[in-house]
Amino acid sequence: MLTIKSTVRSIIVLLIAGILGACNTLSSVDQPQNIVIENAQAPVSFADYDPRIGFKGGESFGGLGTKNKKAKYRADYIYNSSMKPDSAQYKNYSDNPIKQVIAEPVSTFSLDMDTASYANSRRFISTGRMPHPDAVRVEEFINYFPEASNEKLIPLSDSPFAATYELTPSPWNADKVLLRVNIKANDVILDQLPPSNLVFLIDTSGSMYGPDRLDLLKQSLKLLVNKLRPVDKVSIVTYAGEAGVALEPTSGRNKAKILAAIDKLEAGGSTAGGEGIKLAYKMAESSQINGGINRILLATDGDFNVGINSTEELKAFVIAKKEKGITLSTLGFGDDNLNDAMMVQIADAGNGNYGYIDSLKEAQKVLQQEMNATLVTVAKDAKAQIEFNPQEVLEYRQIGYEKRQLKQEDFNNDKVDAGDIGAGKKVTVLYELTLAGGRPSIDPLRYQVNKTTVPITSKSGEFAFLKLRWKAPQDKKSKLVSLPIKKKALVSSFEQAGIETRFIAAVAAYGQKLRHNPELSQISYQQIVSWADQAKGKDPQGYRSEFVQLVKKTATLEDKKN
């Protein structure tokens, strides 16, 4: 009897030890890993990028019971994804350097704008995490916000553009001056838009399961569907384990059919993104509208693992199709496996925009309020060039636009691709300048001729000269327009600058600080809050007030780290 009891006790002990061992094995799976950063060396702590909450046994998702085979797959996927490290990918772009006007008087760049970086970084901060510096592209921060004042713009004759500018002492460096240039494209009213041939290319792979992914994507696309006219056509292509057509080209008159097709979308399988893109372009070509809008909207977390899966392959494919009149925009969803690096590059290659959707409010901004700018191109291959007057400016540094830099000779070369500007789109450009007589950041060169001794009396009232070059949507030859930036636009103090300049300066300071730019090391988040809070202006959608709260939350996160 004693032997039997001893044997039973031994078995129980062994069972308990086995269970504990299994638990330890499970917990060891979730180990710190590094985020994949293109061209970047510094690893990122896994602790800063928590994975999604895992599936708990016995739960069901989306009203599907666990006996359902598809529901069981989804539950298993979510559980496994909670064990995966964050594999989000961001491309590294080094900050633009300070340049001497005497050596490099001209700044040239592609005139285009996305806003994804701000929305994605906001998502990080809102969930209590600091964004990786490479996730922050400052030009996408400063171009996120609608105008908050009735700022007077100067029409640029024989062009679809109007512009304005202002100069103010920098709030973060007493030795510098900020130059803000605003360029706005003409808008069009909805009834005057050309007919649209839109293909929704939707990632329905397993990684897209969840309320912040496919569920949000479906709600977002419905907002755009509600704006469709009878002359517009929509197709839906999906990709997971394989690509398929979820909706043949359908008139915007038949909204119920389009919405029903969106409602049927479900997530599951691997990610045959390359096959999906091929099929989407095939659909776009089959119903292409001459003189109309022919655009693919790719909605995904960017996780391509079947078919064409290298960014360079995708870019080459998209560029070739762009030449046939079909453009591509991207909409990013999700967090831990977001391939931001790929999304931004193929949107650029496809002459489209890249937006990140973290909420239904953001979807309304991108797909309703900014629909014209997203879909209708008023100027293609748009380039900007600013030449600085060496009599007035010693140095300059462009804030942001690192991924859009062009060579000086590219400006007049119509074969060099550049950005497309959508209807009503406002683009803000910001420079930090050292004026003549100020303290330069770079020592003068010993053996170079001092070009500032050359008399330029006729241009002495100018700080710089802005030139824009673009092509009409159907043209192959570019046009040119210019605008002198005059010295009289310099205000005597930062407090006297207009609200647009002051608010954008605060946003630029915030973005640079998130990128760990040493220029902003001595500026606190509290100071940035003060600058922004005093320059909110008209803010009907609350974007500027939200920014102030976001900076306050960032200050709290920074305090916790310290």
TrEMBL record:
Entry's CDD domains? vWA_subgroup
InterPro entries in UniProt: CLCR, Uncharacterised_YfbK_N, VWF_A, vWFA_dom_sf, YfbK_C
Domain named VWFA is located at 197-375
Highest rank taxon of the organism: Bacteria
Protein name per Swiss-Prot or TrEMBL: von Willebrand factor type A domain protein
Species, as recorded:
Snodgrassella communis
Task: Tell me the classification of the organism that encodes this protein.
Answer: Bacteria, Pseudomonadati, Pseudomonadota, Betaproteobacteria, Neisseriales
